[in-house]
Amino acid sequence: MKIRENIPISTLTTMRLGGPARYVIDVEKPEEIPEAYNFAKSKSLPTFILGGGANTIGHDEGFDGVIIKSNLKGIIEAGGAQYSFEGPKTRASAPERPEKEYERQAPLQITAFSGEEWDAVVAYACERGLTGIEALSKIPGLAGAAPVQNIGAYGQDISQTLVSIEVYDTLENKFKTLDKNDLQFSYRKSILNTTAKNRYFVISITLELKPGTMSHPFYNSIEKYIIANNCTDFSPAGVRDIVSKIRADKLPDPKEKASAGSFFKNVYLTEKEATEAEKKDYPVYRGHDGLKINSGWLIEQAGFSDQLIHGIRVNKKAALVLINESAKSYADLAAARQEIIDKIQKDFGYKLEQEPVEI
């Protein structure tokens, strides 16, 4: 267990804002998790669980508490290395299999530890011909954060494949398993960021994936790319390649440009609202997860694309992304956010909701 003191939150989050955190603890193995919480308790300090920092905003005053980060690594296939709270320190390697065998395989469960890069989990699955998370390629952050906000993109979300998670329950001071139903998934929500926020420290997630290809209809962005580029490979690896290219073209790498990914949630509609929107020629998406309008489209229509507002740049190709180009404080971000929200409310009657959480 590594304890660091007075660490700028701006160095821990991809939006690069935020003052100092009193303490930051990196846990290397599950048995260190209760030790980290006991440390915070001994100093009467609050705690905050932080993943890769790609969906988190820091405040100027910092955090007078203990930020706990997972450095638990490993990806395991069912029937492979046995899972234990000690956990593997390096990613397990699956045996090589002839590609044709994928057609004969039953669904396979894989367990990823919370400190593993999420995109490494997607790559691991796609290399083995397993479908279910390929559209979630290149989403920044760690595996442990995936179920917290039910990450989703291009028609897939984590709730479709997640079986269970292993956690440390800070209320009952014990390790336990929560299954999918326990998490009460909805759009960008679970109990982990609502009713049980900060109660559970995620140790690992278990997904059930299957051989095959992504189901039609494809999400609009994927379909447009397929048509424009005459794509014929819809295997998990093929779709991963398509999604990776779409994201590379539209979305800035948070390692190169300070951003927090999609800053606003999409707007979900009732059937009546969707019908009214379609009469106005608004692009309503009707998918498995409901009826919605892409908030990026609303921001574009409101004239914000490529605009610099209080030091925050609205990304030209994907207006859902806000880039910290020259903002020096949380106040700058808050001012830019409110200007966009107010204009969308005035022009369209929809109220945008922020996606990143705040420390």
Gist?
The chain has eight helices and 21 strands.
List keywords for this structure.
359 residues, alpha+beta, Uridine Diphospho-n-acetylenolpyruvylglucosamine Reductase, domain 2, Uridine Diphospho-n-acetylenolpyruvylglucosamine Reductase, domain 3, Uridine Diphospho-n-acetylenolpyruvylglucosamine Reductase, domain 1, 3 domains, six-stranded antiparallel β-sheet, four-stranded mixed β-sheet, 24% helix, globular
Descriptive report:
The protein is an alpha+beta fold. It folds into three domains: 2-70, Uridine Diphospho-n-acetylenolpyruvylglucosamine Reductase, domain 2, CATH 3.30.43; 75-211, Uridine Diphospho-n-acetylenolpyruvylglucosamine Reductase, domain 3 (2-Layer Sandwich), CATH 3.30.465; 254-358, Alpha-Beta Complex (Uridine Diphospho-n-acetylenolpyruvylglucosamine Reductase, domain 1). Helices cover 24% and strands 27% of the residues. It is built from eight helices and 21 strands. It has helices at residues 32-42, 118-127, 180-183, 220-229, 236-250, 271-279, 295-301, 330-348, and strands at 2-8, 20-27, 47-50, 56-57, 63-70, 75-77, 108-113, 130-131, 152-153, 156-157, 162-169, 174-179, 200-211, 259-262, 267-269, 284-287, 290-293, 308-309, 312-314, 321-324, 357-358. Strands 6, 7, 8, 11, 12 and 13 form a six-stranded antiparallel beta sheet that branches. A four-stranded mixed beta sheet has the order 1-2-5-3, with helices on one face. The longest helix is centred in the C-terminal third of the chain and has 19 residues, at 330-348. The protein starts with a strand and ends with a strand. 43% of the residues are buried.
